[in-house]
């Protein structure tokens, strides 16, 4: 595709800085070696990395302390400092993650679907790495190890660009990864960290298709939108999580209460938290007052359509056993914009719908194609919901909070895709690979 | 993802013309119905379309005659007129293609890998359509039926933009598709043709992510490069086919002669024709003069590296049984640019390499990641070539000319991808689909 060989081009002609050109060339060279690395060498690297993370905890914490001091001096908020912190527990968790990945089967090189064709040739597909991916992420330094370990196991090379506030921690972690690769006779350049916090380098990383095949951003929506707009290679996009739970008629209302409560209030900030509740008209009068009582007790603001407001205002007192009395300021009228909103906060939009069909139409129109759930006891409704809701994860009688690579058994998660192309939903090892055709003949020619 | 519902936006605010806005809205609405269409309805449509294509041959040929007259008046060349022509045989071929697709299994809605997770939930993946794709193609009107039938079978909606020279034929064909859809109670808008040849509409088609999920261009490299550069949605790119055959040491030289001859000379214009021949040093002296004699007899120009020239010039006479004597003007020295070149003509570049490793490195550096083959009798060499050559199709002892959706048993081919993301190599029904996660619980909540 490139009519000039990448390695032959001087930096001045590519528009790339010397540092990015070098990272790119080294990554491309390393990716060829990683693609043919044995499962044993890759697993040995991961186990070695786990050992190093434990053995070097003190060194890593020293590096992390520099970042924390700088962040405190810069007046970063408490939650931001928490995310930046590399505690011994956090290091133990990522070390265990490396060991879990090492224990998983290697999917690279596997051939599936090999079949004889009428011409005589045999045709199948081999799973191969994507090549080189670039990852751009904010604050949490443990992402450095998560990304590196997934990259190694999937036979890719990667270029990592972490948040500037975590640069010392990330450099110390990346150094351990290089050491683990070298000790297992794999190329240290298979995992490289952009060594500078110069923002111009991000612009270069996402626009060098000769060296980088895929970009994975992790962070706020504005970061991801900007990267998607400016990238010259495919991007695994994770935009909003405007997740819905639809409480169907008929369903187990006690189950519905429990699942909606969990989906909304177990944590408010994750992308897989519920932001919008749809309730079938047939169960609204019984369900909504109980649900509202739970939300009221937890201080969740409810932005409601007229029918929901009508039900809740006609029954302002919570039923026996519910958590408390509704406070009127928590009940407001939803605007059109509310149905699109990802609050990431103790706020939920609520709408009464006629039934399944309206629920599916509403979700497909206003949702963000992330994760949506139905609570139902009707089999046909469950099947229709699974088939027709156009989202990366579609659930029956389960909390949207399960949408996660670990919960799905992917071993780890490099990101979540709200796109339909290549990968949907949580992206694990398979999302970092591709299938190529392999053809076996015996001197066959086409007539 | 879109914070305003597509159907609510007036054309003036989208930058789209009324016609494209309408096509987009209709396609999006039809795609929801197609995604849940039964296999029976989709197959019935395809069989009905096959019947209509045969029953309406005369009408279709009248429409085609208008295009042919216009093309002749405009002075189009013979090969272009051939490509434009909708003969009864061409119509019979596409009708049979529809019947073959109807006979294939429906992959939509199938759930794979359903497994119980430690939390109690069951997680699997369901195959679903991409949604709406746009297809942009040149001259050959039978592509209208190929694209429409693949779109119907895969449960997508599509917007087709054929070449302006085939507009009358394409309109007549698209009308039959609409009729077949309507007769099977599926939305006629599931297949729409851009009714105008205004080129500005192509620019709009590739830049309306709210209505179109994927663009598939078929045509010359410059068309595809321009579309890839300007598109606001993913594009299945088919750039060059700089395909290699590597003649290994050891191999069956008679097989090598036959396969290389077929790969290069059976047809010169297809993207899967061989453009570059690599020969292991150990077999070069025996193989090259015989191969050169075949090429000489067929008038194929050979652009050679110094070692190849040395071998061929020291043995200017073809061996007994070969087709003729080498004419010196057919032998020229290859430039660096020749190794990158897709000739699509009776020209081949030839290079002697030390062995397997150099061959793989050369292919990965200069090739276009389309299709590459090895001729070998060494098992380890075959395995290494399959694993390490970074191309959409990698072959052992078979002609590169087999790289084709029909030959691979895909039933049909919407295009060929030289990318690594989503789909590599020939793209059939599966490339028009995606996998979403489905989660089944029993009221499970996350702790």
How do the strands and helices of this protein lay out in sequence?
The structure is a homodimer of 447-residue chains.
Chain A: H1 11-14, H2 18-35, H3 39-55, H4 57-73, H5 78-84, H6 88-103, E1 111-116, E2 122-129, E3 132-137, H7 142-153, E4 157-161, H8 167-183, E5 191-193, H9 200-205, E6 214-218, H10 221-230, E7 243-247, H11 253-265, E8 274-280, H12 281-297, E9 301-304, H13 306-314, E10 331-333, E11 347-353, H14 356-366, E12 371-375, H15 379-388, E13 393-398, E14 415-417, E15 425-427, E16 433-444
Parallel strand pairs in A: 3-4, 3-6, 4-5, 7-8, 7-12, 8-11, 9-10, 9-11, 12-13
Antiparallel strand pairs in A: 1-2, 2-16, 14-15
Helix pairs in contact in A: 3-6, 3-8, 4-8, 6-7, 7-8, 11-12
Our count of helices of chain A gives 15
Mind summarizing the main beta sheet of chain A?
A: 7 strands, parallel
What is the CATH third-level topology name of the largest domain in chain A?
A: Aldehyde Dehydrogenase, Chain A, domain 1
Biggest interface, residues from each chain:
A-B, 81 and 81 residues
The mean pLDDT of chain A is 92
Quaternary form: homodimer
CATH architecture classification name of the largest domain in chain A: 3-Layer(aba) Sandwich
Overall form of chain A:
globular
Strand order of the largest sheet of chain A: 10-9-11-8-7-12-13
Number of strands of chain A: 16
- What count of structural domains of chain A? 2
**Segments of chain A where pLDDT lies below 50 for 5+ residues?**
1-8, 319-324
Distance between the termini of chain A: 29 Å
Helix content of chain A: 40-55%
Radius of gyration of chain A, in Å, reads 25 Å
Please, what is the CATH homologous superfamily of the largest domain in chain A? Aldehyde Dehydrogenase, Chain A, domain 1
Assign the structural class of chain A, choosing from mainly alpha, mainly beta, alpha/beta, alpha+beta, or little secondary structure: alpha/beta
């Amino acid at each position: 595709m490139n009519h000039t060989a990448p390695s032959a081009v001087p930096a001045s002609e590519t528009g790339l800085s010397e540092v990015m050109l070098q990272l790119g060339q080294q990554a491309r060279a390393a990716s060829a070696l990683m693609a043919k690395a044995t499962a044993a060498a890759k697993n040995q690297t991961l186990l070695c990395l786990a050992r190093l993370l434990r053995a070097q905890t003190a060194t890593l914490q020293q590096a992390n302390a520099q970042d924390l001091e700088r962040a405190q001096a810069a007046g970063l908020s408490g939650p931001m400092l928490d995310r930046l912190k590399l505690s011994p527990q956090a290091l133990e968790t990522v070390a265990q993650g490396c060991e879990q990945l090492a224990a998983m089967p290697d999917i690279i090189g596997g051939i599936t679907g090999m079949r004889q064709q009428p011409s005589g040739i045999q045709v199948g597909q081999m799973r191969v790495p994507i090549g080189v991916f670039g990852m751009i992420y904010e604050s949490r330094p443990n992402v450095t190890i998560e990304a590196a370990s997934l990259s190694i196991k999937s036979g890719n090379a990667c270029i990592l660009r972490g948040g500037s506030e975590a640069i010392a921690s990330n450099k110390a972690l990346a150094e351990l990864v290089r050491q683990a690769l070298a000790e297992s006779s794999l190329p240290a350049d298979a995992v490289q960290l952009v060594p500078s916090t110069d923002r111009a380098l991000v612009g270069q990383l996402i626009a060098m298709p000769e060296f980088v095949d895929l970009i994975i951003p992790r962070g706020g929506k504005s970061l991801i939108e900007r990267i998607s707009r400016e990238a010259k290679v495919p991007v695994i996009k994770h935009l909003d999580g405007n997740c819905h739970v639809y409480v169907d008629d008929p369903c187990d209302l006690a189950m519905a209460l429990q699942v909606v409560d969990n989906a909304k209030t177990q944590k408010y900030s994750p992308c897989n938290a519920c932001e919008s509740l749809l309730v079938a008209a047939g169960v609204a009068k019984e369900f909504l007052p109980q649900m509202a009582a739970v939300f009221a007790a937890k201080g969740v603001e409810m932005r409601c359509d007229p029918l929901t407001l009508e039900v809740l205002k006609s029954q302002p007192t919570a039923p026996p056993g519910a958590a408390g009395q509704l406070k009127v300021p928590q009940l407001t009228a939803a605007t059109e914009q509310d149905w699109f909103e990802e609050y990431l906060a103790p706020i939920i939009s609520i709408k009464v719908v006629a039934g399944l069909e309206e629920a599916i139409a509403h979700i497909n129109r206003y949702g963000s194609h992330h994760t949506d759930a139905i609570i139902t006891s009707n089999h046909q409704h469950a099947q229709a919901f699974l088939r027709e809701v156009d989202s990366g994860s579609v659930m029956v009688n389960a909390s949207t909070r399960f949408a996660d690579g670990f919960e799905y058994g992917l071993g780890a998660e490099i990101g979540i895709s709200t796109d339909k192309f290549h990968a949907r939903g949580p992206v694990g090892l398979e999302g970092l690979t591709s299938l190529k055709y392999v053809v076996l003949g015996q001197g066959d020619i086409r007539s």
